[in-house]
Amino acid sequence: MTNSTTNFVKIIKEIAQEEGIRLTSYSYDWIFRLEKDQKSRYIIGYQFGLNAGSVQSLCSDKSAASDVMTSLGIPNVPHFYFMAPEEQHYIGERGNWSELLSLLSKYEDLVVKPNEGTGGDDVYRVRTPFELERAVSEIFRHSTDLAVSPYQPIAHEYRVIVLDGQIRLIFHKERAKDPQTGEYLTWKHNLGLGASAVIEEDPALKERLSSIVQMVYEKMDLRFASVDIVEVDGTYRVLEINSGVMMEFFSRQSAETYAMAKEIYRDAIRKMFA
């Protein structure tokens, strides 16, 4: 599937036509220029220009975002930063292995992934020094840095879409199961890897998640974002924050989810011109 055939591109074009917005496309529909009422705005990828550039950069850096959230008292899954050997001169030549092995010894079960990136690509669960070495080597083939976090026995992983402090959508990611055994096909909760989105409407759950999301909105100055929150042993903590709001797989599930995604994007675009 090319970028130009995604539901996201289709939705943006539909909204522009319905809202009387002149739309110009660049770079295979990866960049849009929107013009209305003598104002020009841009959508780049899934970034709508509502968040400051520094905030966007912070959210894309998993370990930095974790450090900031911890300092602000926002419950989160810790992410530890490691840099490829050729980049070590930026932080001193202390090396990675002793600290990586120390984390493995402490937590016994780790998740290793690129420090930037989404979708579950190059994400490894490791429980032995050999698995750790293989995962780190593989990631450093493609990335200059990585993040390591303790593996979490996740009961539910929720995605919360927030726009100017208001929760617009909550769904949990239901992993696919083997029809015969009933076992999960993967430990990852990514929609792009076969999980499905189950919309949550329980007021009690919304209230629990809202307290965390409100902290993210107020303390990190995020206007439009998707916040991934995991439930572990009855507690809730932020796994990742995405300042680019991607609802591609969600919008493909049904006509209802397509309409829900479209209305959220419509309101974000209206705020761009407010």
Could you characterize the architecture of this molecule?
The protein is an alpha+beta fold. The chain has three domains: 42 residues, no CATH class; 144 residues, D-amino Acid Aminotransferase, Chain A, domain 1; 71 residues, Dna Ligase, domain 1 (2-Layer Sandwich). It is 36% helix and 27% strand. It has eight helices and twelve strands. The strands form three sheets. A five-stranded antiparallel β-sheet has the order 10-9-8-11-12. It has a four-stranded antiparallel β-sheet with strand order 4-7-5-6, with helices on both faces. Strand 1 and strand 2 form a beta hairpin. The longest helix has 18 residues.
Radius of gyration: 20 Å
At CATH level 3, the topology of the largest domain is: D-amino Acid Aminotransferase, Chain A, domain 1
In CATH terms, what is the architecture of the largest domain? 2-Layer Sandwich
Query: Which residue ranges are poorly predicted, with pLDDT under 50 across at least 5 consecutive positions?
Result: none
* Average pLDDT taken over every residue: 94
Termini separation comes to: 34 Å
Q: Strands of the largest sheet, in order across it? A: 10-9-8-11-12
Strand tally, please?
12
What is the makeup of the main sheet? Answer: 5 strands, antiparallel
Helix content estimate: 25-40%
